[in-house]
Amino acid sequence: MDETRCMVKCLERLSYFYYEESCGQCTPCREGTGWLYRMVHRIEHGQGRQEDLDKLLSVADNIAGRTICALGDAAALPVKSFITHFRDEFQHHIDHKRCLVGLARSRRRRARRRSGAAMSQMLKVEIDGRETTVPNGTMVIEAAKDLGIFIPHFCYHPKLSIAANCRMCLVQVEKAPKPLPACATPVTDGMKVFTRSDYAKQAQRG
Ligand code: SF4
Ligand code: FES
User: Is 65 in the pocket of ligand 1 (CB under 6 A)?
Assistant: First the structure.
């Protein structure tokens, strides 16, 4: 399970399992598992009441340790730990009648769609007089590599996060007031880059 799972929904499934599996021999388990399931079910479906969380904990306390077999404990313990560790998610369901995780998930989906649209935009760049087209978000060093142009570098690695502290990859960019690190400079449309000009070479030497 990861952070994309709704803990209320998970507890509803678990509680239903124990409610169904209870053989009914002990009263706390027979009655309590049904109460647990029904309360979690109504919270999950937007009908939770403010007092439900405390009531759930109290019912779980009254089942644990009071039954013949371990099913009673197994039904009670998840209720206690879920509410202890994820109380805010349960509270959000009660207060807003909707899922906190579902909301976060749809926001993430929207952000992904937006960034996907932005990434699908292609940009033209000229490096040392040669033109190429790269997706939005491409760094100058990667665009140069596509063209077979080597830019000296030390701290850059495509699989690591950008540090941009060795300054070996400095290049000249038209209209930029100072040399820019190719590993940390994203391509912009129509950008002109010079990797071997005197200005660039001098910057790379430091
Ligand atoms: S605790 Fe075990 S024996 Fe008791 S009702 Fe539940 S399942 Fe049956
Ligand atoms: S490779 Fe080190 S700053 Fe770019």
Answer: no
Residue 77 pLDDT more than 70?
A: yes
Name the closest ligand to CA 31. Answer: 1
CA of 66 to the centre of ligand 1 (A): 10
- Tell me the two tokens of residue 118: 């932005």
- The predicted-structure confidence for 91-109, as pLDDT tens digits, reads as follows 999 999 988 776 666 666 6
Establish whether residue 24 lines the binding site of ligand 1, counting it when its CB lies within 6 angstroms of any ligand atom: yes
pTM for the model stands at 0.54
